[in-house]
Amino acid sequence: MKTFAIALLSLALTAGNTLATQRADAATIRLGNVLPGTLVTKEVQSIRERRFENLIAQETDFSCGAASLATILKYAYGWSEVTEVDVLEGMFAVSDPEMAQRMGFSLLDLRNYVESVGLRARGYEIEGDALDAVSIPVIVLLNLAGYQHFVVMKKVVGDRVYIGDPALGNKVMNRSEFLDAWNNIIFAVIGENFDTHTVLLDPAQPLTARRLTDVFSPVPKQQLLDFGFRHAEVF
Questions:
Q1: Among 26, 19, 47, 25, which Cα is nearest to 169's?
Q2: Which residues contact 162 (CB under 8 A, 6 or more apart)?
Q3: By the 8 A CB rule, do 135 and 171 touch?
Q4: Which helix (H) or strand (E) holds 125?
């Protein structure tokens, strides 16, 4: 059954990669004679690239958990070569592939995969007013119009919740909207080589004056210990 599941996954990803080659990607724009005898170049991003900056997109309808995990491994733990396929294959090895394709992966599946690669997983139940104290990127499960969907919660500032959605891209949710969809559980990946300066904690800001209050700062060591990191992994 696992072989069949992986074959289906490969077919889906092949189709996705074919579509990806048709998307507009970043390019260099050259502007000549802005000043006589000069050539100005400017790197630009496509809308899709901007939307999925520092985020691994899901390529199947059941792989939001795998893509969210891959995002944290790549951008918070330095696994620069990890892909959604790598994580999916690992998750199929520690779960029921048929159930995963029909119902999606569970938090238990995510935990089993994380522990299979030498890291630790911690699930915490917290109240909504404690969200601002979550100082590392975590995975959360949202109920979006009846659809259970894993996303990366990067940070919370006031009434803004910064989300990395593997299906829709980076976005900012209103706090009340987030609380209505969230089940009060955060899922943290814990282990060595966590990057306290991870780009996941410095998401693109809304284009308003309020963004000036969202000042980036690395995670203090004491807060890492609070989340279950060991002294040997922090100091």
A1: 47
A2: 153, 154, 155, 156, 170, 172, 203
A3: no
A4: strand 120-125
Per-residue pLDDT reduced to its tens digit, 173-203? 999 999 999 999 999 999 999 999 999 999 8
Query: Which pLDDT band, with edges at 50, 70 and 90, does 34 fall under?
Result: low
* pTM of the predicted model as reported, rounded to 2 decimal places: 0.81
Q: In 3D, which of 72, 30, 81, 29 has the Cα closest to residue 54?
A: 72
- By percentage, how much of the chain surpasses pLDDT 90? 64
Give the residue numbers marked as catalytic.
64
Closest CA to 82 of 92, 69, 101: 69
> 124 — phi, psi (to 5°)?
-125, 135
Listed in sequence order, the residues at least 6 apart from 166 whose beta carbon sits closer than 8 Å to its beta carbon are: 55, 56, 57, 58, 63, 64, 67, 68, 71, 150, 151, 152
Instruction: State the pairing for strand pair 147-157/138-144.
Output: antiparallel
Plot region of 63 (φ>0 → left; ψ -120 to 50 → alpha; else → beta): alpha
Q: What is the DSSP letter of 117?
A: T
Amino acid at 172: V
